[in-house]
Amino acid sequence: MPYTVPTAPAASWTPSLLRAELQDRLDALARTHRVPGAQLVLDTGTDLISVHTGTADAGTGTPFTADTAVPLGSLTKPYTAALVMLLADDGDLDLDEPAAEHLPELRDTPGVTIRQLLSHTGGLPTGPDSDTAAETTAARCLAAVCTARDLLFPPGTDFSYSNAGYVAAGRLAETVTGMPWQEAVSALLLEPLATVPAFIGDGAPPRRPVAAGHAVNTATGRARPARQNLAPLEAPAGALLASALDLAAFGNALTGRSDVLPPAVTKEMRRPERAARPGALADGWGPGLALYRRDDRVWCGHDGNAQGTSCHLRVDPESGIVVAFTGNAASATALWRDLTGELAQLTGVRVPAAAQATDRGRSVALPECLGTYRNGTTTYRVAPGPDGTPALSVDGDLALPLICYADLSCDLVDPATGRPEPGGRFHRDPATGRIDRVQISGRTARRTDDG
Prior knowledge:
Blueprint: H1 15-32, E1 37-43, E2 48-57, E3 62-63, E4 70-71, H2 77-89, H3 114-119, H4 130-133, H5 138-145, H6 163-177, H7 181-190, E5 213-216, E6 223-226, H8 235-238, E7 241-242, H9 244-255, H10 263-269, E8 284-285, E9 290-294, E10 297-304, E11 310-316, E12 321-327, H11 332-347, E13 371-375, E14 378-384, E15 390-394, E16 400-404, E17 409-413, E18 420-428, E19 435-440, E20 443-449
Antiparallel strand pairs: 1-2, 1-12, 2-3, 4-7, 5-6, 8-9, 9-10, 10-11, 11-12, 13-14, 13-20, 14-15, 15-16, 16-17, 17-18, 18-19, 19-20
């Protein structure tokens, strides 16, 4: 059933009044969170409300417009997934066949299917960092990191967010279409959605205004443009730039209101994978989309962060509501969370900003979680902190205190605020009872020793 504005208790709202109020609140929240510029779109299926604020580039003072394209980071992935799903719908590939049937560089992980690539359930590691990836090709990169030795768990049994999986998905699209990923996603998806293509690092002059990401000095509040660092082979995982209006058009396609994506494709993308337990990232995952539970509804969407940007898409397929947001500073993530609260207050629409909170009871001591865990070249070390309770360090960075719970979930304590934030979960081997994996922010690491 379509959602219409106004609703109680704001029975006097009209679309124009709601737009003015959302503009005021976006302006105020951008100042509060020191975000140079941002865009918000609320599409109810009946009315489309678009607001934007601030500057696209603090270095030049270029103003943000409704058409300004923002580096989406991982919000590129649903577009790549939709591209692959379109190819599957045309019969060019089968989601449940091994990806190695099309990509010989995955021959050392023959059990990983295309569906598992798209839903992060293949057990693949995250992949190399952008600097390392810049020195090789996609095929060589995948052959190096996607090996049986590096699998985090048997394919199809758990969840680990993987950029490598989407490098592989992009390679699949290139193999089937005979076009580079940028050309294929532009021809089959972006242009039908009336989105002017823009990509990080493609070397082409931009055909539309683009925003820079920003690093903000917390002491002075001064924002400086941040350089986007993405290897060409990582493009299918994070190279797209788009506006909130572009994201809303894609969101509309995911509801079935657009003929760009067939209903069979959107239904399949929204179908939860049984093995996908993304922890703090979302309440579930389908082939390309995160799933969020709120009240009696399941929303779909994705989040994305590039260097100094934060972008978000949420879609309620039942009502047809689409909410899209872009911001050009890392602090825009906090702005987004506050904005969802404002939307609930103004309209009654409860947009899920993150996974649904659950009551996990009291915290417990979990000394058996101490040890070293690895995901590819990334090392997670859980060791006693100054007070004797577990603390997590990633690649030797500052160790953050962990709060563990009886269901093996855990929170990370924010050093700036002292507040616990959802971190992830530990996994116990059902055969041995031993904790053998940890998942932090959706990425799983396999235990290597007890040291």
